[in-house]
Amino acid sequence: MTDFMTIDDLGDISGKRVLVRADLNVPFKAGVVSDFTRLEAVKPTLNDLCAKGATCLVLSHFGRPKGQRVSEMSLAPVADALGKVLSKPVVFIDDCKGSAAQSAAQALNPGSVAVLENTRFYAEEEANDPNFASAIAQLGDIYVNDAFSAAHRAHASTEGLAKVLPAYAGRSMERELKALSAALEEPKRPVAAVVGGAKVSSKLDVLTNLVEKVDHLIIGGGMANTFLAAKGVDVGKSLCEHDLTGTALQILGKAEASSCTVHLPYDVVVAQAFEENAPSQVVNVHEVGADDMILDVGPAAVEACADALKVCRTLVWNGPMGAFEITPFDRGTVQLAQAAAALAAGESLLTVAGGGDTVAALNHAGVASQFNHISTAGGAFLEWMEGKTLPGVAALQAA
User: Fold this and answer.
1) 142-145 vs 17-21, strand pairing mode
2) Distance (Å, rounded) from C-alpha 86 to C-alpha 375?
3) Which of 24, 83, 96, 205 is deepest in the core (most CB within 10 A)?
4) Which pTM was predicted?
5) Catalytic residue among 310, 356, 366, 388
6) Which residues lie closer than 8 Å to 362 by C-beta, 6 or more apart?
C-alpha cells in the first residue's frame, strides 16, 4: 500500500495549479460548520503546497445532490470555514469545470487557496465519466488526493483525475496509508482486532477477512450476542441476529482453521431497560434471564481481553464493546480502550482505529489522542478491513 508518490516527490511547482481532492463533507449545525476535523486534516497538505509556491484548487463533494445544483449543498460556506482553519482568505469558485472556473483559477496568485463548487452537482462525478475528469483537469497541472475517506469511491475526482494528471498522495492520505499498511499488511505480530457494534450483518466481510489476518479477534457489542447464541447461549431479549448464527459458526470454524483465537465475553452486564442508569448487574453469560438484555461486556471479559492485548504488538479497532452512549454500559469500552492506550504509551502496541462510532467511543474514553492512528474515514476504513481494493488508492499506485 506504500507504493505511491507523495508531495515530497514533487519537483519545482512554483506557479503551478494543483487540484487537491479533500473531503470537505463536514457537518453543519444552525448554518455553521460544527466539526472542523476534516478541514484540519487537509491543512498540512495545503500549507506545504502553498509554501512551494503552488496555487491550490480544492475539490470535494458535499451531501447527495444527485447531479443537480442544490443551493443548500454549495461548498461556499465551507470555503469560509477552511479560511479560518488556514488563517488566510480562501476564494470560492462557483463551478468545478468550464471557462468561468478556468478564468477564476488563472487569476489566483501563487500561494493562494480556492475551493471549487461541489463535484456532485454533476451526475458525471459519481459515474466516473472520463470526459468530466478531463474537464476538471483543465483547471490544474497536478492532482493531489488527500481524501482517504472517499478513496472507496471510484468517482471522477477520486479516481478519474489520477489517470489524466500526474498524481500524488497528500499528507493525510499518506499518513492513513502508512498506518493501515503497518496494521494489517506488514504488521508486527501478534496482531489483535477489536470488532464491536450492533450487528454481525454489517461487518460480515470484516470478520471473514480478519480471522485470516489476525492472531486474536475480540468481538463485542450486539454482534457478540449473535456469536454467543450460535454457541448455544440463551441471550434473553438482547439484540441478536438469530438468523445469522449459522454464519457466526462458519466464521468461528474459519478462525480455528487459521489459528486465530476468538474472544467472546463470558461475563456480561445485563438490564431489563435500555436507558440511562437502568438497574443492571454483572452475570455469567449462562445466567442471562429471559427478560434480560446484554448491554455491555463484563469486568472479567475486559480483563481477559486486556491480557490478550499485552502479548500483541499491533491492534486494529473498529466498533464499541457495548452501548457506550449510555451510563453505565460504557464501562467495558472505556476500560479496554484505556488498557490499549496504556500499551500504546509504553510503545509495546501499535494502535490503529477507525469508524464513526469508534472515534466517538475513544473520545468518550478520553484516549483518542493516545492511539497511534485514528482514521478519519468510515466506509473506506471498513472496506480496507474487509480486504477490498480502494479505487482512489489503486489509482495513486497505478500513477
Assistant:
1) parallel
2) 21
3) 96
4) 0.90
5) 356
6) 317, 337, 353, 368, 371, 374
Domains and CATH numbers, the chain: 7-173+391-398 (3.40.50.1260), 187-366 (3.40.50.1260)
Tell me the per-residue pLDDT of 44-77, one tens digit each, with 9 for 90 and over.
999 999 999 999 999 999 999 999 999 999 999 9
Q: Is the pLDDT of residue 1 over 60?
A: no
**Rounded to 10 degrees, what is the CA torsion of 162, 164, 165, 167?**
20
Among residues 67, 236, 378, 379, the one annotated as catalytic is 379
Identify the residue whose cell numbers are 438484555.
293
Residue 314 DSSP symbol: E
Residue 229: which residues within 8 A CB-CB, separation 6 or more? 235, 240, 242, 245, 248
To which H or E segment does residue 296 belong? strand 293-297
Find the helix packing angle between 245-257 and 221-230, rounded to 10°: 90
User: How far apart are the C-alpha atoms of 364 and 333, rounded to whole Å?
Assistant: 9
Greatest pairwise CA separation for the chain in angstroms: 72
Q: State the pLDDT at residue 3.
A: 86
**80-89, 273-282, 302-311, 382-391: least confidently modelled range:** 382-391
The single residue of 163, 178, 199, 237 carrying the catalytic annotation is: 199
Active-site residue, from 17, 21, 38, 175: 38
197 has catalytic annotation: no
Q: How far apart are CA 286 and CA 229, in angstroms?
A: 11
Task: Indicate if 199 belongs to the active site.
Answer: yes
Name residues whose C-beta falls within 8 Å of residue 293's C-beta, 6 or more positions apart in sequence.
236, 237, 238, 239, 270, 271, 272, 273, 274
Strands 28-29 and 32-33, sheet pairing? antiparallel
Coil, helix or strand at residue 217: strand
Spatial separation of the C-alpha atoms in residues 322 and 320, rounded to whole Å: 6
pLDDT in tens, 98-150: 999 999 999 999 999 999 999 999 999 999 999 999 999 999 999 999 999 99
Provide the pLDDT for residue 184.
Answer: 84
Q: What is the mean pLDDT of residues 241-246?
A: 96
Tell me how far apart the alpha carbons of residues 190 and 352 are, in angstroms, rounded to a whole number.
14
Is 244 within 8 Å of 198 (Cβ atoms)? no
